[in-house]
Structures are given as structure tokens and as C-alpha cells.
Amino acid sequence: MLAPGVRLSDDIATREGWDDVTDATVDATFMGTALEAAKRAGEHDDVPVGCVLVENGAIIAVGENRREVDRDPSAHAEIVALRAAASRRPSWRMDGVTAYVTLEPCVMCAGALLNARVARVVIGAMDEKAGAVGSRYNVLSDPRLLHEADVTYDVRADDSVRLLSEFFSPRRG
Ligand code: ZN
Fold it and tell me: N or C: which end of the chain has fewer CB within 10 A?
């Protein structure tokens, strides 16, 4: 299943530097799906964070933060998505999978992405207070740990920040 709106047109492919253009467009599109999941989290009063897992250009799982609605401290968007993907795959291993996350993963989620062997993580906004992929810690690029992932930052960060600010706005409700 291809994400809606993903089109790799021949027109783009004939232009010089099309690899970069295409990668950035694809990243922005999948992050859009993660942002929709984040919005759903906000609708059930969870902090709006979303995660999409992609393999070979296709979405294999989508997760939104469900900590409050499920009363589960581990139900962050990344964990929800990883569980959904693993339940449909022959293995828990996420080799070759890219995770799109609207907010920099926390220590728990960075650890889960690492343990799942996710190949690449694409991040929207940074979490300077609790982020574990560059802000407070750098769990996904630590040679002392068992796995490292490629990381891309700042993909639709403004959209993610807007969702979070609206959620935490005192005028809400
Ligand atoms: Zn987390």
C-alpha cells in the first residue's frame, strides 16, 4: 500500500538532482501521515505525537500516542507503531524500515527503535527537555550500543510544533 499522495513522476526523475528532491518530498509526505496520527492522539486528549513505519516505500504501520486513553505509560506513538508492525510480520526485526516521528523520540522509544533495528529515523520537532536522539541523549548514534540508525532532522517541524502548541495552549477546551 502506497501512502496517499506519493507520486514519483518521470517528470521529476528526469531533472538534475532529482534524488534529493524526491527524498525530501517523500519524507514530507510520510511525515504528513505521522502528523495526521498525532492529531488523532490530541482528539483523545493525548499529547499529539504520531509515528509511521515505512518499508520499501509503503506504510507498514501507523501509531499515535495513546498513553492517556490506554492508561499505559509505554503507549507512546513509536511503541504503538512498532507493536502493530511486528504483529503483522514474520519477525520483530525492522531491518530496512524507516520510522517517521513527529517529535524527537524519548529514551524509551529511542531504545525500542534501536532494539527493533530500525534503519532510519526521520524526526519532525526536537524535544529539548526529553529527546534522546540528539537533545538530551543520543541513543541512536552511540557506538557502545548494539545498533545505530541514520537520522534525518527537521522534517515538517513547524507543523509538529503547531500541533503541540495548540494542545498545550491554555485556551484549549
Ligand atoms: Zn517515547
Answer: C
Asked if the model's pLDDT at residue 152 lies above 80, the reply is yes
Cell of 171: 485556551
User: Can you read off the three cell numbers belonging to residue 58?
Assistant: 509503503
Q: Which residues contact 153 (CB under 8 A, 6 or more apart)?
A: 123, 126, 134
C-alpha 71 to ligand 1 mean position (Å): 14
Whether 36 sits among the annotated catalytic residues: the reply is no
Catalytic residue among 36, 78, 104, 148: 78
* Phi, psi for residue 148 in degrees, rounded to 5: -125, 150
Alpha carbon of 25 to ligand 1 centroid (Å): 26
- Global pTM? 0.87
Q: Tell me, what's the pLDDT at 173? A: 54
Distance 78 CA to ligand 1 centre (A): 7
Do 57 and 75 form a contact (C-beta atoms < 8 A)?
no
Largest Cα span, the chain: 50
- pLDDT at residue 22 in the model: 72
Residues 6+ apart with CB under 8 A from 6: 26, 29, 30, 57
